[in-house]
Design brief:
Number of strands: 0
Largest sheet: none
Number of helices: 3
Distance between the termini: 48 Å
Order of helices and strands: HHH
Strand content: under 5%
Helix content: 55-70%
């Protein structure tokens, strides 16, 4: 195995889910390789969920769907209500970060 930067590949979504299912059905939880695979799967699934929320936030069918997706996305990336601007970007809103603590 080389020490060069890892390369990425793209695979079909359904194939990816099949790989996850196979790994969890046949993997040994005590195997270090399985632990690395498990961690990578979870990291990738979280990234896919964030991407789906962002896409829905930008192109949802209604304003309500887009706003819910926006809030869910910001929560998924670790921002909280008190820390980000509302969807209407009202410049008169003042966020008091000191009041949170």
């Amino acid at each position: 195995m080389s020490t060069a930067r890892p390369r990425n590949i793209q695979i079909d979504y359904d194939f990816y889910l099949d790989l996850i299912s196979h790994a969890f059905m046949h993997g040994d939880p005590d195997d270090p390789c399985f632990c690395r695979i498990n961690a990578a799967f979870h990291k990738k699934l979280e990234a896919m969920e964030r991407h789906e929320l962002y896409t829905l936030y930008k192109s949802g069918a209604s304003e309500e769907i887009r706003e819910k997706a926006r809030k869910d996305y910001l929560e998924a990336i670790g921002l909280f209500d008190e820390y980000y601007w509302s969807a209407n970007h009202d410049v008169n809103i003042k966020h008091d970060l000191d009041a949170m603590f």
